[in-house]
């Protein structure tokens, strides 16, 4: 790197920092489906770099009668409070509420995706600059006066290109996995719920074909993979993250088990996982708020996961929750009254083969994405600090 080519610039030298606003919620004329309007909640757990819309939209009249601004396509969106640090790039024109400070980048001075990654690299700095008693917020003035090292524009493009290539593959894998997941759920419904032959199958309570909370052995204090509720997926079968920790008290499981969250709001939100991240013979553990599905032979393990993902199972569990408001939970015994048609062994075996193939591809894509994300996290600071010579 030729350090002379990198220049320290203020944010305001390369971008306009724009705030947001909220039209009056009491005036229905201000709300509609004309202009996408984002709040920080729309970026919570949002996995993509580009965003086109949020949960709500406003009308042109709402835009004209509020402090909301129409932000151009390609602008970098930063949540500036509650919390500070969520980032995305506008896929099209959008508006935001006042929880954002957006960067309308001057394309003659900076590359918008470079600015996105530059801010991503400095999220902890941004958080540290927040002030306020009720909740921390970073002001537009503070952001405008922040100084960063910027390389020449062609180098910015190359840096953004390297990081974007990694993220594009991660996003493609995520989209592919969503399609594979939908295929699995569709096949399960077609074969076991909507199949016209179901009327000829035996009907039994669910526990006759699915073991619930089967006993697993794990010595207290032994180190074992731990999956907490925060890392349970709401879509797809793969756990988000797990870590080794000493076993204390919790639900135990092995590969092939399905974990169904039983407490509000996790049950309603769809937190469900198929365990496929353990070593052969290894026992993992997690929250006490899981119900473990373990299909009895000849049903394949995958049957339990796709069954747990059905609306019928989830709604039954929700309708049978008990407890005080905010801490309601379903018990495994609620499934004693859930009747299910027993599929022929041959059909179940065929489904196991199909589901296993789909889930193996999903796992391979997910593992590749985890590797790519690790590479990106290593490269990001090195690229932003100019440790690689990318000059022409």
What's the arrangement of strands in the largest beta sheet?
Answer: 2-10-7-8-5
Helix/strand class? alpha+beta
Helix content: 25-40%
Whole-Å distance between the termini? Answer: 10 Å
- Assigned CATH class of the largest domain: Alpha Beta
Low-pLDDT residue spans: none
Distinctive features:
about 400 residues, alpha+beta, Adenine-n6-DNA-methyltransferase TaqI, Chain A, domain 2, Helix Hairpins, 3 domains, 5-stranded mixed sheet, 4-stranded mixed sheet
Give the arrangement of secondary structure elements.
Elements: E1 7-10, H1 11-14, E2 15-18, E3 31-32, E4 35-38, H2 40-43, E5 50-51, E6 56-58, H3 60-64, E7 76-80, E8 84-90, E9 95-96, E10 100-105, H4 112-121, H5 123-128, H6 140-144, E11 147-150, H7 153-193, E12 203-205, E13 210-212, E14 223-227, E15 243-246, E16 251-253, E17 258-261, H8 266-269, E18 272-274, E19 284-286, E20 290-295, H9 301-308, H10 311-319, E21 339-341, H11 345-384
Parallel strand pairs: 4-9, 5-8, 14-19
Antiparallel strand pairs: 1-11, 2-10, 3-6, 4-6, 7-8, 7-10, 12-21, 13-20, 14-15, 16-19, 17-18, 17-20
Helix pairs in contact: 7-11
What do these coordinates show?
The protein has helices spanning 11-14, 40-43, 60-64, 112-121, 123-128, 140-144, 153-193, 266-269, 301-308, 311-319, 345-384; strands at residues 7-10, 15-18, 31-32, 35-38, 50-51, 56-58, 76-80, 84-90, 95-96, 100-105, 147-150, 203-205, 210-212, 223-227, 243-246, 251-253, 258-261, 272-274, 284-286, 290-295, 339-341. By secondary structure, the chain is of the alpha+beta class. A five-stranded mixed β-sheet has the order 2-10-7-8-5. Helix 7 packs antiparallel against helix 11 (345-384). The longest helix is centred in the middle third of the chain and has 41 residues, at 153-193. It starts with 6 loop residues before the first strand and ends in an 8-residue tail after the last helix.
